[in-house]
Automatic annotation (TrEMBL):
Belongs to the cation transport ATPase (P-type) (TC 3.A.3) family. Type IB subfamily. It comes from the Bacteria. Residues 3-69 form the HMA domain. It is found in: Cell membrane. This is Copper-exporting P-type ATPase. The lineage of its organism: Bacteria, Bacillati, Bacillota, Bacilli, Bacillales.
């Protein structure tokens, strides 16, 4: 099933941070499209939930030095 989740991302200090996160997420297995907004501090990710989970997406963002949580 395809799912779209919005994450709140903190720790980005310049717009290149957003580009870094976006690139990493777009290379992650199961992710269809990732769009990171530096100003809004959000990551909108469309993914196949049988391949990758929201927890794994959060883990990946944290691995490269940022904090993420699901945006309710
Ligand atoms: Mo900007 Mo971010 O110089 O990972 S790219 S701080």
């Amino acid at each position: 099933t395809k799912q779209t989740t919005s994450f709140q991302v903190t720790g980005m200090t310049c717009v290149a941070c957003a580009n870094r996160i976006e690139k990493v997420l777009n290379r992650l297995e199961g992710v269809e499209i990732a769009a990171v907004n530096f100003t809004l501090e959000t990551a909108k990710v469309e993914y196949t939930s049988s391949v990758v989970s929201s927890e794994e997406i959060i883990k990946k963002i944290e691995q490269i030095g940022f904090q993420a949580r699901i945006n309710e």
